[in-house]
Amino acid sequence: MKKILTYLLFPLLVGLLLFLYGFSLHRNQQKKVERIEVQFEAGVNPFLTHESVNKLLIQNNAPVKNQPKSVIDLHELEKIVSVNPYVEKASVFLTPEGLLKTHIKQREPFARIITKKEVYYLDKYGVKVPLSANYSARVPLILGVESSEDIKEITQLVTLFSRDEFLKKEVVGVQKLKTDEYVFDVRSGDYKIYFGKFIEVDEKIKKLKAFYNKALLDNTIHNYKIINVKYHNQVVCTKQNQDGKQ
Fold first, then answer.
1. Given a cut of 90, is residue 104 above it in pLDDT?
2. Which of 45, 68, 98, 206 is most buried, by the most CB atoms less than 10 A from its CB?
3. Residue ranges of the alpha helices (H) in the chain?
């Protein structure tokens, strides 16, 4: 008799659990989105505001707030937010309490490209980022870069600068000449660095750093109008005139 009761009670218990689960799931799905929370990954690039992200969170031509959780398409919302040119990565999820959370990593510009047709930022992946009315990034100005190959090359070059704390602050402008050679503008004085073509880059940076270490130490850096590191195993400098003019 006990075995028969056991066999009878087990499916009833399973059925009750399934009913409770389904009932709980139904109630949860009918619960509405009560609040939206936007979190930005730590950084100093406030291209986007909480308000601007909230405006992106639109589904079926209506804000997601007060919509039932069952109709919220999280994947679609992530796609909508990720399409924004200032967003590098976005994730959207719902909590049982009806909170819609959006976590955003903004793109980090590290160069401003100025061409004949447009002006834009470039991030570390070589992705174009439009200028923003909310934020102006202090990054090197790049001239003479037009083609996709130019973009790829300048991305590699500025990446090397960004990894060196001194050069990251020192180099404020880069111009690519028609000869495919690079010339740098610097923060510390009225002189230019002739870097040459994009070859032997690591060696040229080592030479430049070694020259800086000496010239800053003996305070002769301002005696020059050109510092040329494009030649193999040497740094060739052109001095200012005695009156300080070039």
1. yes
2. 45
3. 2-30, 50-56, 74-82, 148-162, 165-170, 201-217
CB 28 within 8 Å of CB 96: yes
Q: To which residue do tokens 């010239």 refer?
A: 215
pTM of the model: 0.78
Query: Which CATH number applies to 109-239: 3.40.50.11690, 3.40.630.30, 3.40.50.1000, 2.70.40.10?
Result: 3.40.50.11690
| CATH 3.10.20.310 applies to domain 30-106 | yes
Give the pLDDT of residue 142.
97
Would you list the domain boundaries of the chain?
Answer: 30-106, 109-239
CA distance 64 to 148: 39
- Per the listing, tokens 């020059």 go with 224
Which residue from 224, 199, 201 is spatially nearest to 214, judged by alpha carbons? 224
